[in-house]
Amino acid sequence: MNPKKNMTHNNKQTGIITGITAVIAIIMIIFWALQLGGDQAPRVWRAFLINYLFFTSLAAGLVVWPAIIVTAGGDWMGSLEKVCWAGFSFSVPSLLALMVLWAGSENWVPWLEPEAHHAGWLNNIFLFARNLIMQLLFWFLAWLFLKNRRSAKKHVYGGWLVFIYALTFSLVGFDLIMPLDLHWKSMVVGSYYFVSGLYIGAAAWAFISIISGKPNTKILRTIGKLVFAFCLLTTYLMFSHLLPSWYENQPHMTSFVIPRYNLAWVSISYLLLGMVYLGPILLLVSGWSKRNPAFLGIVTTMILVGMWIERWWLVDAVHEKEQVIYGWPEIAPTLGFLALMITAITLALRKIPKLVEPDKIQT
Q: Are 311 and 49 in contact (CB under 8 A)?
């Protein structure tokens, strides 16, 4: 086939995909909004929060990986670096979603209840304003790093982006996850949230690279190593949530454990052990598993689905301790966010040039 005709054909296919996903996103968001007037409004808002937490983790995790690698002196990403920068296309939807959560906060946040005795730090305006400012700063630094990607100061911009990423998404963990249970206090939840975001980002990087073409298998193997490494780190940090309740008398830690390991959510906890914590360690331990695109694609799909379930498990187990509820209030925003993410990344992959022309990885 003529290269120009082939490009035109691919552009038409991309246009059809983005058109369909954009329509799905609009329909699902409208359907979600229509449910806000019902008697399940708090549940509908929590479903929106779950998807904000997951898809923002995915987009920010993608974007920060090139900064981590460049700051560490790495030069192996090659043409697959543009997959990470496609995550930048979700910056505006992510910020808009945070503002929507702020606008509807009176319908879902527990720290506005009379028994919440944290009026200073959990002042609603202060809480959402600081998160919005920090996330604006993060996306601005991401833009600066992309703009200066080929300059001599790329390490400086990359280092600042990594630092602000850790601060910003630690804050999300402390502000939008931990206060959902007013009795739970944890020093780990911030680091867990930003590290698990890097885990989601690495898995998404591998998955998108595989489905968008024939990736360099040596680069893919290195991305697979990142997925494996951050699976170990994420698992360790989740285990750290459990340690204090076992070896110390800290009642404020047990409120996290009880609904997830004793009541209705225990089956979901075991499912997560297989999908995102211990399972990927066993599946990705061999070199072959990280070189084989089909196998790595299956494992990263499992991880991405599992990490969405994990965000649901983090949020909803606080409010529905005795039963696991899943239905259209959760499905609609999930499909809406997913369709919006596909639309944004598909369009971005067409627009973002290759930042590093050759695939330079050696082994």
A: no
- Report the pLDDT averaged over residues 28-38: 86
For the whole model, what pTM was predicted? 0.91
- Flag whether 245 is in a domain: no
Distance of CA 43 to the CA centre of its chain: 21
Smallest CA-to-CA distance from 316 within 175, 168, 108 is with: 108
In a domain, 169, yes or no: yes
Per the listing, tokens 């209840």 go with: 113
**CA end-to-end span of the chain:** 34
Query: Number of folded domains in the chain?
Result: 1
Task: Give the whole-angstrom CA distance, residue 341 versus residue 335.
Answer: 10
Residue 117 pLDDT: 58
Distance CA 15, CA 343 (A): 10
**Does 249 map to a domain?**
no
Residue ranges making up the domain that contains 199: 12-225+328-351
Dist CA 237 CA 242 (whole Å):
9
Identify the pLDDT of residue 184: 83
Diameter of the chain measured on Cα atoms: 71
Q: What gap in Å lies between CA 95 and CA 140, rounded to an integer?
A: 12
Question: Does 18 map to a domain?
Answer: yes
- Which pLDDT does position 358 carry in this prediction? 43
Residue 330 pLDDT > 70, yes or no?
A: yes
Looking at residue 246, its pLDDT comes to: 62
Mean local confidence (pLDDT), 37-55: 91
